[in-house]
Structures are given as C-alpha cells and as structure tokens.
UniProtKB/TrEMBL annotation:
InterPro entries: CFA/CMAS (IPR050723), CMAS (IPR003333), SAM-dependent_MTases_sf (IPR029063). It comes from Bifidobacterium aquikefiricola. It holds the Pfam family CMAS. This is Class I SAM-dependent methyltransferase. Keywords: Lipid metabolism, Methyltransferase, S-adenosyl-L-methionine, Transferase. Signal peptide: none annotated. Belongs to the CFA/CMAS family. GO terms for biological process: lipid biosynthetic process; methylation. Its EC number is 2.1.1.-. One of its GO terms (molecular function) is methyltransferase activity.
Length: 430
C-alpha cells in the first residue's frame, strides 16, 4: 500500500504537540493549530520547505525568512525579538518523530521532485568554496575580504541603528533607561579609564570602527592611532576627526594590525575585533600586542565569548554565511589562559553580557524606527538580515548562551615588578 503523502501542516504536526500555542497555514491549503494561538506562521511556498529540508537548522530557516517565504503577523522585520522568544518557549513542546514518520516526510517532499533552491543573493559561499577561491580563513587576504563584506555595506545604513556615536560594540548602562548614546560613551570612557591613560599618552585602537574611540580619546588629549580593514570606516572616521579639529592627535588607517610599524604604546584597546582573529591565532595576536606596548603599558581586550569551553569555537551556518564569515568564539577561561601564557598579567576581567542585550535592544528599536530608510538603502533582504541578526543576538545574550568580556592586562615591567599599577581598581563606575 502506498504511503500517505503528507501536506505541510501534517509535517509540522509530526514535530510539535497538538496543544502547542502555534498556528501554521501553508501554500498547499493545509493548516494546523487554533486561531487564538500565540504565534501564527505562514509557509508561503514550496521553496521554504526545500530550504528547511536541505538545512534543518538556523541556515534553512534564515534563507526562508530572508526571501519572505515564511511570514507571521506577529513578526516585525526590524525587530523580530518577540517571535524568537515565542519560538524558544515552543521548544518544550517539540518532539522527535519516529523513523517511519521522518521517512514519510522525506518521501512526501521528494515526491514533488528533488529541488535545491538557490540561496538568497546576499549569502556568502561556504567555507569550502571560499577556500577554493583562495580566501583562506584568518590570513591577511581572508580577513580583508570578510571584514569588507560585513562593514563596507553603507555608513549611512549603520548610522540608522547605531546612532550618533557610531559605536558597533557593547555599550555600558548605568540603568536600563539610559539612552544608547550615553551608554556607548560610558563604555568608551570606561575603556580609557581602565587603561589609566592621561593627556599626552599614546593609544593604539585595533579594529577601530568608525572612529568613536579616536574622537573620545583625542578630546582627552590622548594621541591615538586607529586601524581597520574597512575603507568605508576609514573615510567616515577621518572625516569625523577633521570635523572635530583633532587631526594633530588622532588618525585612522586602512591597515592590518600585523603591519603597524609603531611600538611603545602606553595603551592598546581592541573592542569587538577578536571575533575575527580565529582561536588558533590568539597566541600570535596577543604576542603582537605585548610587543607593541611599553613595559607597564596596558591592553584592554573586549570580545564576545562562549559561556564555557565545551561549546564549539565556530559560529553556525547562518552567522558564517551572512554576518561574520570565519568568526570564532572561545570561553573567557581559554582566552585568559592564552593572555597569561604570552606574558601579560591580567588585572581585571568583567562580563558585560546584560549590557550587550540592552545595546542590541536599542539597535533593533532604531532599525525599526528607520525601517523604510533602511530598505531604501540596502534592500529588503539585508534590512531583514540585520533585524534578525540583532534580535537573535539579544536573545542569546539574555539566555546566557554567549557572553562578552573585557580583559584588562598589563605588560610586566622587569625593573619595577608588580608595583606598576594601583592596589585597588582606579576607574570610576559607569
């Protein structure tokens, strides 16, 4: 007897309890769930089914969402956070179908023909494909390509959600009611305070972004060099520096951190750049930083981390293809292990996980507020992509799936030993 050909609603019902607060309607006329369900999803075409069948993970769902193949009246493109929360709550009501049911789902899909739909046009090739094209992970060429992909999008687009500070890293909030701009400048000043820099000192900023640190430091009389691999960021940052009349104190260069000729800096900061370095390259990276500091100089390393060392280093398929190609994260313990081994002394470690969730909440609000402008600038797919990425990141920080740490480190001075910094933390609370 031939097996029953399952429709889309029946495939969904094979994975979720019948009383789950979810309603699904599909292009084939099938539906499941009640009208008063908490979440309503519409599967608009067969491409969505094939995307998820090929990649039953975040990559398949992302492809379908970016193409508009899956929709929901509860879903706000600039800030789909609430839908992510609802999907997470539904996980408790998901179950694994029997092998026979899975086989029937497979045969039902393939009975319509074997299709591998093209991914969205904004998706990057796989790691294997990039390597075959000579773009090797964490080489100078590879880093330049991946950084350019992420950051050379549109300065004006980033300005829509980052706001006037143009600071694309975790802010620091005194309270949840703080404005994003205030919290971002709290963070910039916290970094400078932790580094114990004074007027006339020299700072190196690795992965400087659009220049907010350069302007903030120069206004305090600190000489600062920022480096980035993004041409768009260099132009924006140097224009900003000129407008502020700070050219005698600050500059931003299109330069790989491995090619910086200067050394003897009083301080170095790296804010949100380590995600691009690659775990195997941490020793070489921190050794480079150690050599560029004077004895007694300090490094402030600020990076997203895994919650523990049991989690894998590489990002998932969605992040690798759409957000941070070749991005890798490690646990705070693994990072501190490397920092110590290259010769630094770690003075302080601080987890700002909750602050990043608040930062992302504000970025999503800004994107939603400027949604039409965003779509006009970069197109519907890329605007949806950034809304989804930021909302998903916020959710993961809230759930403690990922964290973000600041490591304050000092290069030991062989002549003065350990008496090179105050006995107690000297930076004010922000």
């Amino acid at each position: 007897m031939a097996k029953h050909r399952m429709n889309v609603a029946e495939m969904v019902e094979a994975f979720i309890d019948p009383d789950a607060p979810l309603q699904v309607t599909a292009f084939d006329g099938s539906h499941c769930g009640n009208d008063d369900a908490q979440l309503h999803l519409e599967v608009r075409n067969s491409r969505a089914v094939y995307y998820i069948f090929e990649n039953p993970n975040d990559l398949g769902l992302a492809r379908a969402y970016l193409q508009g193949d899956i929709a929901s009246p509860e879903l706000t493109p600039g800030d789909p956070y609430e839908v992510f929360k609802q999907l997470q709550e539904l996980q408790a009501q998901f179950h694994k179908p029997t092998a026979a049911t899975l086989a029937n789902i497979t045969s039902s899909i393939l009975s319509h023909g074997f299709h591998v739909p093209k991914p969205p046009e904004i998706e990057l090739p796989s790691v294997a494909k990039r390597i075959s094209e000579g773009i090797l992970p964490h080489t100078k060429k590879g880093d330049a390509a991946t950084v350019s992909y992420h950051y050379d999008l549109s300065n004006e687009f980033y300005n829509l959600f980052l706001g006037p500070s143009m600071t694309y890293t975790c802010a620091c909030f005194d309270s949840e009611d703080d404005s994003l701009e205030k919290a971002e400048y709290n963070k910039l000043n916290l970094v400078l305070d932790k580094l114990n820099l004074k007027s006339g000192d020299y700072l190196l900023d690795i992965g400087c972004g659009w220049g907010s640190m350069e302007v903030t430091a120069a206004k305090r009389g600190i000489h600062v060099i920022g480096v980035t691999l993004s041409e768009e960021q260099v132009q924006w940052a140097n224009d900003w520096i000129r407008k502020e009349g700070l050219e005698d104190l600050a500059e931003v260069r299109l330069e790989d951190y491995r090619d910086i000729p200067e050394s003897g800096f009083d301080g170095i900061c790296s804010l949100g750049m380590m995600e691009h370095v690659g775990h195997k390259h941490y020793p070489a990276y921190f050794k480079e930083m150690l050599e560029k500091l004077r004895p007694g100089g300090m490094l402030l390393n600020h990076q997203i981390t895994r919650t523990n060392s049991h989690q894998g280093k590489r990002a998932g398929g969605f992040i690798d293809r759409y957000i941070f190609p070749d991005g890798e994260l490690a646990s705070p313990g693994e990072i501190e292990y490397v920092i110590n081994n290259v010769g630094f002394e770690v003075i302080n470690q601080e987890n700002l996980r909750q602050h990043y969730a608040l930062t992302l909440m504000n970025w999503n609000k800004n994107l939603q507020r400027n949604w039409k402008k965003a779509v006009d600038m970069v197109g519907e797919q890329k605007a949806r992509l950034w809304g989804m990425y930021m909302a998903g990141s916020r959710f993961n920080f809230e759930m403690n799936t990922i964290q973000i740490h600041q490591f304050l480190c000092i290069k030991p001075d062989p002549e003065t030993g350990t008496t090179t910094y105050p006995l107690r933390p000297w930076w004010p609370r922000h």
